[in-house]
Amino acid sequence: MRIVIDAFGGDNAPLEIIKGASIASLEYGVEITLCGKQSVIESVIAENKLNFFGELKIVDCEDVLTMHDDPTSILKSHANSSMGVAFSELKEDKADAFVSAGSTGAIVVGGTLIVKRIKGIKRPALASALPSPKGSYLLMDMGANADSRPEMLEQFGVMSSVYLNKVMGIENPKIALLNIGSEDTKGDELHIEAYKLLKANGKINFVGNIEAREVPKGEFCDGVVTDGFSGNIVLKTIEGASITLFSLIKKILYKSTMNKLSALVLKKDLYSLKTLMDSSEVGGAILLGVSKPVIKAHGNSNAKAIKNAVRQAKTVVENNIIGTIAENI
Amino acid sequence: MRIVIDAFGGDNAPLEIIKGASIASLEYGVEITLCGKQSVIESVIAENKLNFFGELKIVDCEDVLTMHDDPTSILKSHANSSMGVAFSELKEDKADAFVSAGSTGAIVVGGTLIVKRIKGIKRPALASALPSPKGSYLLMDMGANADSRPEMLEQFGVMSSVYLNKVMGIENPKIALLNIGSEDTKGDELHIEAYKLLKANGKINFVGNIEAREVPKGEFCDGVVTDGFSGNIVLKTIEGASITLFSLIKKILYKSTMNKLSALVLKKDLYSLKTLMDSSEVGGAILLGVSKPVIKAHGNSNAKAIKNAVRQAKTVVENNIIGTIAENI
């Protein structure tokens, strides 16, 4: 198996990306293709004495698509960027899966228009496993589509179900619809219609609406289906609320000498709490609905997050997620 | 000034509601009308030796509208419930403002269709001050309208601005639009259009889009304008994320004897953190856009939260928020 990696995507590129690729390659026995400036990639590998399983392939390209570039530029002016070239490798069957920590918008555009959709899929969407005290749950769409239609949400339900079953090993996964009330008549037009479609779909174990309050607890279901706008809001609100609370707690722990001493005792446990809620532990987001595996790692991914994204890519390939989605649509 | 209170709305009714009304009445010098079963109200007052400023008025009614009732039943089958009667008192000018901790949906329906809209207002919406480390910020609409149009969001901006200025004393308050990206071209159709209208409106100090990640920090703006669906999602996600984190921290503090000893030292500070993030400190939500002050206290309001909601009602009356909104629409 070969995974193509955009070596210049993300805040910590290329060092952390290449390091993560090396670790994953050796640990999971997958071959790696790195796209980006060859001279830089080679010196990072030499300076850090990095090794790779099998044959390492480097595809040289000068250009990089940044977070500030128009996402659609991946199709034209930035077609030869590290991400654009990585998409070409995937499209031309030179790799089995794709990983990038670069621009989410460009990954959605590239996945949809270069790699192309699975037949019958209305719109691909991003699914991400989020941490909770009760284990992780899948959130889909986490922001690939600003505007959604009810039929799209129904398909997100089917795709989530396949992913949860095949990749996360959950038997008959419970799927809920994010809504502003738990009763079946609640919500705006989009969600009232989506509820009906999800309920009527025999391929989904649909357990009804879930309110946002219940989402971070991770108790109610295995997968949360949402339109991309609300999904993005939930994801970022959890992030913002956690950052705010942790920064306030940190202030308390450093407030006085007595507090500092107490903090020493609690340090390890509080740190493990931060790790528990840390999304880099879970892996990247996957663009489901496209005809090959496309993994989007978090923009600030370190080597560990990239390693986990590669593991995720490998699991997706091994379990034939794409084929199973195609069969179920 | 007289405030009419639905004595039987909310999880802790009638005891905490009546207690809160008594405390507020004495502390702020406002007269109170209590709606609900007179015999129960009288025995609560007697048993708890409660006093009131000026003349206490009790309007006897048997019926109570619960959280499970259809909100529109406030207009018909539950028109004579404690909430319905309280709305009548307000409508007939027998009180200057209304407070209830009952069903949000029924308060929106009653406010809109019994009390009626301010001329020119498309849809009333709920505004609520939320706590943050940097002081409180206003979120509007927090869920009165499931479906929204761009012009509604523009009016939420104007109403938020008036409220922040007149009630919270903020000069030229900064208003932002909740969106899934900070650039002005981001979002779904609704938010792209709303952005243009807010930017073009000379009565608002519009500072652009705010991402959900920034909302809980409370740094970027004084007021967050949002459609009711997203507003409800933000509000409940913050609640859910905070509950989840606090429960995990609590587990850590009780994990071992050493942890318990350290927890004793930190207890007071951690408790003050919980208070800081506690919405009962800030007051209730206000239904802006209706022709008289309607305050919705949190469903699980205790006496303190009711007291704060009455204070808020008083400030709204004293500063003629309704008149100023009418002038600015």
Explain this structure.
2 copies of one chain form a homodimer. Chain A has 329 residues and is α/β, with parallel strands linked by helices. Helices cover 44% and strands 15% of the residues of chain A. The first copy, chain A, contains 10 helices and 11 strands. Chain A has an 11-stranded mixed beta sheet with strand order 3-2-1-4-11-10-5-6-9-7-8, with helices on both faces. In chain A, helix 6 (189-200) links the parallel strand 7 and strand 8. The two termini of chain A are 26 Å apart.
What's the helical proportion of residues of chain A?
40-55%
Low-confidence stretches of chain A: none
Q: Strand count, sense and closure of the main sheet of chain A?
A: 11 strands, mixed
The largest sheet of chain A has its strands arranged as 3-2-1-4-11-10-5-6-9-7-8
Number of helices of chain A: 10
Mean pLDDT of chain A: 94
Query: What's the N-to-C terminus distance of chain A?
Result: 26 Å
Q: Into which percentage range does the β-strand content of chain A fall?
A: 15-25%
Helix/strand-derived category of chain A reads alpha/beta
Question: Largest interface, by Cβ-Cβ below 8 angstroms: which chains and how many residues each?
Answer: A-B, 54 and 54 residues
Coarse shape of chain A:
globular
Give a count of the beta strands of chain A, DSSP E runs of length 2 or more. Answer: 11
Q: Could you spell the SSE succession of chain A in H and E letters?
A: EHEHEHEHEEHEHEEHHEEHH
**How much is the radius of gyration of chain A in Å?**
20 Å
* Quaternary structure: homodimer
